[in-house]
Structures are given as structure tokens and as C-alpha cells.
Amino acid sequence: MSDRQNTRTIVDIYGQQYVIVGPESNSHIRLVATMVDDKMREISSKNPSLDTNKLAVLTAVNAVNDYLNIKDRLERLENELKRVKD
């Protein structure tokens, strides 16, 4: 368990307010919320008929896809670095 205190941050995502509680800084939480809001608005602009639930799921799918792509790239770079060191 960490000694870090949780922070409580109120953010606005796609017109709704949320209270986010966690060990990250307020600025980090706000950055994450802004990125989610931006992605929701981007997807909504391409598919204006989506309801909020479907929009949220598509935003999550996009975020996880981005995460997996970055994770895969990091693993490939770590393997390459290990190979160069050996």
C-alpha cells in the first residue's frame, strides 16, 4: 500500500461532471479527463447519431486499442534494447 494521499478532482467529460478520486495529481486527472472528452467529441463528430453509452464504449475501445499498440511497441523496443546490450 502506498503512503500517497488520494486527491479528489471534479472534472467535466462530455457535459457531465465526475468526481475522480485517486493518488494522481489534480493536473494529471484533468489531463486524462480532457483527453477522454476530446476523444468523445471527435468520435461524436464523425457519428452524431450515437447515444452517450455507445459513444463511451467506442471511446473506451479506442483508448484500449491505443494502449495495446503502445504497450506492444514498448515491448519491441525493450527487446531490441536488450539485444543490443547483449
Topology, element by element:
Elements: E1 7-13, E2 16-22, H1 26-46, H2 52-85
Antiparallel strand pairs: 1-2
> Shape, please?
flat
Strand content bin: 15-25%
By helix and strand content, what is the structural category?
alpha+beta
The average pLDDT is: 95
Q: How many β-strand stretches? A: 2
Oligomerization: single chain
Give start-end ranges of low-pLDDT stretches.
none
Structural Rg: 17 Å
Q: In what order do the strands lie side by side in the largest sheet?
A: 1-2
Helix content: 55-70%
Count of separate DSSP helical elements: 2
Order of helices and strands: EEHH
Largest sheet: 2 strands, antiparallel
CA-to-CA gap between the ends? 36 Å
Number of domains: 1
Subcellular location: Cytoplasm
Subunit structure: Homodimer. Interacts with FtsZ.
Main location: cytoplasm
Organism: Bacillus canaveralius
